[in-house]
Amino acid sequence: MISQFAPTDIGPPHYWDKMPEISKKNYGQWQYHEYLQSGVMKHVGPEGALYTVRVGSPRLLSIETLRWFADVADKYCDGKLRFTSRHNVEFLTEKEENIAPMIAELEAEGWPVGGTGKSLKNLIHTQGWVHCHSAATDASGTVKAVMDDLFEYFKRDDLPAKLKISMACCLNMCGAVHCSDIAWVGIHRKIPRVIDEEVQNGCEIPNIIASCPKAAIRPNPKAKSVTIDESKCMYCGNCFSVCPALPIADPDNDGIAIFVGGKVSNARTAPTFSKLAVPFIPNEPPRWDTLVQTIRHLVEIWVEGARKGERYGEWIERIGWEKFFEIAGLEFTDKHIDDFTFSVKTYHVGNGFKFTK
Amino acid sequence: MAKARPMLDELKKGPWPSFVKEIEKSAAKNEQAAALLDLLEDSFEEKRVHWKHGGIVGVRGYGGGVIGRYTDSPEKYPAVTEFHTVRVNQPSGWFYNSEDIRTICDIWEKHGSGLTNMHGATGDIVLLGTTTDHLQDCFNDFSWAGWDLGGSGSNFRTPSCCVGPGRCEYACFDTLDFLYNITQAYQMELHRPMWPYKSKIKVSGCPNDCISAQARADISVLGTWRDAIQIDQAEVANYADAGFDIENLVCGYSPTKCISFDADKKEITVDNDNCVKCMHCINEMPKALHVGKEKGATILMGGKATIVQSAFLSWVVVPFMPMDKENDYEEFKELVEKTWEWWDENAKVRERLGELIYRKGMREFLQAVELDPIPQMVKHPRENPYYFWYPEDFEKENGGAN
Fold this sequence. Notes:
The complex is a heterodimer. Chain A is α+β, with helices and mostly antiparallel strands. Chain A has helices spanning about 20-25, 65-75, 100-110, 140-150, 150-155, 195-200, 205-210, 240, 290-305, 310-320, 320-330; strands at about 30-35, 40-45, 50-55, 60, 80-85, 90-95, 120, 160-165, 165-170, 180-185, 215-220, 225-230, 255-260, 275-280.
């Protein structure tokens, strides 16, 4: 039974009383911050300091765990906690003496503290097979496999710069993976199948045609459906998003592409997109060994080769992309040369390049 | 008897927190979460999803906030025949009291699977998995407890912001108040999809852009300042005395070389006219260097991910806007409303703002929102001679007589 109708359009609750007392007192007057150890920050203002303990989470959390986080916040932080846009949980306290026992309790339960400063940040990712219809790979599974392997980098904060790795399970890219130091994204490699009778019944043909960035879809009046030009389609799946009768998922051929060198921050250099490094890695559940090894390798060559202060893309810009492919030992293929809408500005002009082996 | 799940069992091992263990915690009490484990194990075996497109489900009076989700194999996983997502609008800066967390958990235990995302990429509290007949009661319970749904579909998506003045000395305006203000101001747009596609506003308090506003929001708000970087020379000396390599690690990375360090005096000088507010020196020396005093925001527009025409990073449309709390952020709201109106009038189905600006031309957009062209809007001027002349250009030449 519907118990009457509750008020609508009330919007989110106000944030003020959810902040720690010291945040209210120092509001807008903060002076500086320090990293005390990996995962622990101290923010100082005229009225005193706020300590933050950052905990990595897999984003997918049960209410049992959330209630336990609430208990931890009560025990050490007067009930104050927040989350970050990269799925971390942050426990907030004015009491420096609470930090060590809080970390001990969190880590004893398997909740790692880290991800601040010049470290590997928590991964942002999408739903994958847990809850999405268009995923070309799994999100939580690949992230778990990679983070288990890169765990040390989440705990360390002595990398050349911060390292943001992101994942999206299809080209819709829920989240900003297209501007990450390293990103992997689920891709398809075969054109959608057209189920004519379902297109007729469930889809708007003009919308399907308009959804294609390559003008690869034409009406098929005889079947009251559409046809897809295989020579134009590059498997983005956008037509499937507007019409379920064009399934594109293909367990044998779907997989992962890896992009590198993007960033969002304006620090030093302008924000920039990530660029293609590895066109395809097959789906290898449950542990995605090839993906995990490739990502580790890509992290290690940067840690080894970058100067202090250089983010992934800044390092590559300094040494040159041709040098990056040489150092990484990655094959350079026709897939790496852009032939989409804004491609020509990516071609090399002049002969000021480096020769590589 | 419970099905064996060798694939998922693998993902319970290792040092990083396991999402499988999280689902198992909920599965102990909830049959939908238990069914999800079986479905997921099969996905891992078969390397494919077991979900299909959402149908329209929702709560009375709203068109967004709930995403319909159904398994493609209800005969195999009957408990997740319906497994909808509920988006709940987060508080500014994702600040919570422990009591808030318990309230959310209690309502979600009553009405759903017990699984959450804290948070979704858009910023919402994402509640994963419930049935159609729970939706209205779930909404009602949240509403009575002071929480509202977020956006989904072709509407104003739940905006989000960085931690701002609640913890950060870089905040160039009150991101938390601004976010609360615009979220409340645009409740109609947030709950009722009536546009060509989604529209996002994301808000970062400084050029570091900790929440990636430029990469994913149609309208990106980025704090900045227009006067001098503030320098505490005593603290500069402390960094130098501590052995920090100011010359190489700070000055060496300045994109315009507008900062210099005098090693004898242990003092920093900044040529503020040539500073592009990149934040690098301030990031490296937060005790010694601080953002300026004349603070506000840059408004950039057009950001989005790849689908359909290409990914765009947002483009500068207003280099500096004072973020005036006393004036209820009127200047920003006027610009946003003009932008939405032009986009709503002109965009095709599923065409984001950036794609429309690209299709119609920046010139037409600037005219529609009544902004004058200025050099800060471009990396460099056009490289071709293909530009239009209009009657009003000639009118101007002829002193208005034509």
